Amino acid sequence: MALQPHSGKDVLELIHSALVKCPDAMPSPTTTELPFVDDEEMRKSIRADLSSAASALRNGEWKAATVLAGSVCEALLLWAIPKAKDYDPQEIKDTRGNCCAPENLELAAFIDRASALKIITTGTRDIAHRARNYRNLIHAGRARRLAQDCDRASALAALAAAESIIRNLKMASEAANGLTLTDAQLAGDASQYAKK
Q1: CATH code for position 150
Q2: How many other C-beta atoms can be found within 10 angstroms of the C-beta atom of residue 43?
Q3: In a 3-state reduction of DSSP, which class is residue 178?
Q4: CB 81 within 8 A of CB 110
């Protein structure tokens, strides 16, 4: 039985036009939501990377999980830094001390600037720096010099950093204080890490 045309179009043409409108990938429904990110395209992109990082972790793809989660950290901080209450573009400096746009910073500077602006807590800052060190193992020369490879621990650390940044940004966005954590929120995080 032959497929009949519909509205003057071949059935395969209709199927193709419907499929073209579908996204290439969808984040897992269990992926953390990012309601505080007001740029819809950026929110979708970051969430897709977070979902892919978690999927890579489940599949034992340690380097992919580590690098993708590191990119989530960087993207979130790039979005957040200009929204902080005390953000001053003149204070954004590159490694040579020159003023620059936030997108020209390296991840280490993003992390330190976000901590200084009270966007993330010191506990999250420390986790993010560990994840940054693991993410940099994508460079073969660095991995060889340090005699390290990405593994389950590096992937978990990078995902923990991403989720910690998300938790802090969610708290900061609910504080009605610019995108800045309150002193009570900062103290609460510090006491959480002090309890052992």
Answers
A1: 1.20.120
A2: 17
A3: coil
A4: yes
What average pLDDT does the segment 126-137 reach?
Answer: 84
Q: Which domain covers residue 96, as residue numbers?
A: 35-175
pLDDT score, position 191: 47
Would 60 be classed as within a structural domain?
yes
In a domain, 193, yes or no: no
Q: Is residue 24 part of a domain?
A: no
pLDDT digits (tens, 9 = 90+) for 57-114: 999 999 999 999 999 999 999 999 988 888 877 777 666 777 777 777 788 888 998 9
Token digits for 183? 């002193």
Helix, strand, coil percentages for the chain (3-state, nearest 5): 65, 0, 35
Cβ(181)–Cβ(172) under 8 Å?
yes
Token representation of residue 91 = 């204070």
DSSP sequence for 11-56: HHHHHHHHHHTS-S----TTSPP-TT---HHHHHHHHHHHHHHHHH
Count of structural domains, the chain: 1
180, part of any domain: no
Task: Kindly state the DSSP code that residue 176 receives in the 8-state scheme.
Answer: T
R_g of the chain computed on alpha carbons: 21
Encode pLDDT of 60-73 as tens digits. Answer: 999 999 999 999 99
